[in-house]
Amino acid sequence: MASSKGSNSVINYLHHFFDNYGLGEKEAELHCDNCSGQNKNRFILWYMAWRTMHKLHSRIGLHFLIVGHTKFAPDWCFGLIKQKYRRTRVGKLEDIAAVVRESTVTGVNIPQLVWLEDGTVYVKAYDWQTFLQPYFRPLQGIKNYQHFSFDSSTPGLVIARDCSDSENVTRFQLLKDPENLPPVNLPPVIQPPGLDQKRQTYLYDQIRDFCDDESKDISCPKPCVETQDRRCRGGRAKGCS
Known about the structure:
This protein has helices spanning 7-21, 42-53, 73-86, 93-101, 128-132, 197-207, 213-219, and strands spanning 27-32, 59-64, 147-151, 157-161, 169-173. By secondary structure, the protein is α+β, with helices and mostly antiparallel strands. The protein is built from seven helices and five strands. The protein has a five-stranded mixed beta sheet, with helices on one face. It is globular, with a radius of gyration of 22 Å. The protein is 30% helix and 11% strand. It folds into two domains: 1-192, no CATH class; 195-233, no CATH class. InterPro entries: DUF7869. This is DUF7869 domain-containing protein. Residues 4-156 form the DUF7869 domain. Pfam families: DUF7869.
């Protein structure tokens, strides 16, 4: 679905979670690490403002770990997944989902496939960055703050603190024009690009032999189009001598 875990991907996964796994809560407290590319950036703040101004949540608190602290509760869950993964033969996406599902006895870890190898999409990808950009402006010095809050009663306003009990509070209007709100309608859908020719060829030539027979044609099928400069490896490609 996505070649990187940038802010667009994070917002899409978060939006899907709220829509499909939410409990009808009106207030949410979110805890994240300090990765600026994924979590601590202007687009995440804009999305939180968008949610609250349209009353999808009445209040959202967004909290980041302090510098030097990188481990929190989800890492325990990831650790259990890694343990199960090491003991399991994995050849396709459904195998990964099974690893997650079976990694805990009590069902703490729940798998969510984003898409399948045949192109089936479970989590739609929306172009949030392009959608939000015309309406919002960035908060300067975002890395200096660890706690952000948004409230539906003050559309577009973010309250930022460097510490949870800090008296030094920054109030910043993220909207370029408070009278011009972004629509509640969802952004345009981004179609999954699929694997490029180079990646398809790599999987077929280098990885296919490590897959079981059931997974070979699912995860590493023959590339759609042969590349002219493709090298012969083990006589697999037709015409190789």
